[in-house]
Design a protein that fits this description.
single chain, 132 residues, mainly alpha, two-stranded antiparallel ribbon, binds zinc ion
Length: 132
C-alpha cells in the first residue's frame, strides 16, 4: 500500500518535472542536453536529445543518428566522445597547468532559429577535455 502511494507520487513528480524540463528559448541542443545531464543525470539513452527534438524540432529525425555518429550513444557520451567546450571557455588548473572544464557551464550562445538542432559556438567537435 505504502509502496503504491510512493510510486504514484513518484509518477506524479516525473510528470510535473517533465513539463518544466524544456529547453530555454534559443538554447541549443548541446547546452540543453549538458544542462539536463548535469541536473538529472544520463539514463544511458539519448533521452534528453530526443526530448529536445520532440519539443523544438520534431522534423529533425536524424538528430539522434547524428549524435551516434560522433560516439554519442547516450546523452553523456555526446560529451565524452563527440563535443567539448571551445578553448575560450576552459579554465586553467593552477596545479596541473592544464585546461579543464569550468565548474559551471558557460551560458548558451544561442541559436538563431528555434528549430535548429546545431550546437551553438560554445561547443567544438572533439573539444577537450571531456566535460561530464
Ligand atoms: Zn550516458
Ligand atoms: Zn548552446
Amino acid at each position: 500500500m505504502v509502496a503504491q502511494v510512493v510510486r504514484d507520487a513518484e509518477e506524479y513528480l516525473r510528470r510535473v518535472a517533465g513539463e518544466v524540463m524544456a529547453p530555454y528559448p534559443q538554447e541549443c541542443v548541446l547546452c540543453y542536453v549538458a544542462r539536463m545531464v548535469e541536473e538529472h543525470d544520463c539514463d544511458s539513452t539519448l533521452r534528453w536529445t530526443t526530448r529536445f527534438r520532440e519539443l523544438r524540432s520534431p522534423l529533425a529525425s536524424g538528430l539522434e543518428e547524428r549524435m551516434r555518429s560522433v560516439g554519442g550513444f547516450c546523452d553523456c557520451e555526446i560529451f565524452a566522445n563527440g563535443y567539448g567546450l571551445a578553448r575560450e571557455h576552459l579554465v586553467r588548473d593552477l596545479d596541473s597547468d592544464e585546461l579543464e572544464a569550468p565548474e559551471r557551464l558557460p551560458p548558451c550562445a544561442g541559436v538563431r532559429q528555434m528549430d535548429s538542432t546545431r550546437p551553438c559556438g560554445v561547443w567544438v567537435r572533439g573539444g577537450e577535455p571531456p566535460l561530464l
